[in-house]
Amino acid sequence: MEDGTSPEPSSCAVTEDDPFQWDAREDCEVRQILDRIADKWSLLVIALLERRTMRFTELKREIDGVSQRMLTVTLRQLERDGLVHRKVHATVPPRVDYSLTDMGCTLHDTIKPLVTWTEAHQQQIIAARASYDRAAAPPA
Questions:
Q1: At a CB cut-off of 8 Å and minimum separation 6, what does 105 contact?
Q2: What domains, with CATH codes, occur in the chain?
Q3: Which long-range contacts (CB under 8 A, 24 or more apart) does 57-63 make?
Q4: Prior bond to 7 cis, omega within 30?
């Protein structure tokens, strides 16, 4: 076995050389969790629920472009991961409220700086994209 490698193919252990390394394999738990929480719908749901408890229809109305199916899948995944709490009220018709769990709140605190960075650099990114697109465009 190569020095610094993990004995099990599915292990996500880091090597001693780089404590900030994570395993890039598809079956790595860290990668799977990052894929889940970093997708655009999850980030938007987390940001909205940080403000207050919301019903499904409120979330759907607030998140431009999300389909009912995608929002349902996203909420279920976030609930499964322990980031969102789903409370069903025994009323007719049934009422379901969604809120962030304590762990979900800590995740929101973690992603806030990323959103702040994006807002601070969005004009530079827009300019870089335009410059790249001009350079990559086929000659007229």
A1: 50
A2: 29-136 (1.10.10.10)
A3: 59/98
A4: no
From residue 85, give the alpha-carbon distance in Å to each of 25, 52, 138: 30, 12, 50
At 2 the pLDDT is: 47
Given a contact cutoff of 8 angstroms between Cβ atoms, the answer to whether 58 and 49 are in contact is no
**Which residue reads 């960075």 in tokens?**
117
d(CA 34, CA 61): 26
Contact (Cβ atoms closer than 8 angstroms) between residue 56 and residue 98: yes
For 20-33, b where at least 16 C-beta lie within 10 A, e where not — what string? Answer: eeebeeeebeeeee
Please give the single-letter amino acid code of residue 55: R
Q: What are the structure tokens assigned to 34, written together? A: 């990052």
Q: What is the DSSP letter of 64?
A: T
pTM, 2 dp: 0.71
Give pLDDT, residue 18. Answer: 56
